[in-house]
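seq:
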Amino acid sequence: MPGVEIVTPGERPRHPEPGEPSRPSFAAALVRGLRRRCPNCGRGRLFRAYLKPVDACESCREALGHIRADDAPPYFTIVVVGHAVVGLALFAEMQFRPPMWAYMTVLPALTLAMTLGLLPVVKGALIGLMWRLRLSGDEFQ
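struct:
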């Protein structure tokens, strides 16, 4: 939904000033975050380390270091990985009936690999979405 702006009650919608560049759509910012790229330009890296965002994009100089995703990426990662691993364990039990040692070795390794692989992707997507919504993570309700 390009051009949609979320406005809190009592707040007027913010329109770009003349000469101010337009921001990418929600979908573009989300996909760029999934690719672990700058949500603004899509060229610069989003992380300088495994989960540490860069202070500013190396390509477009957009400030990104102030966005704090905090607990949301691990939560969503746990939900996705947990459902996938439990579903796989149930499928394996119904179809193959593997021995217990197989569960105790394969499932923890699979869970760890999926979690470590998915966590930066989910965090990138959430940072991209938060950037597009102009959130920094320290908003009060």
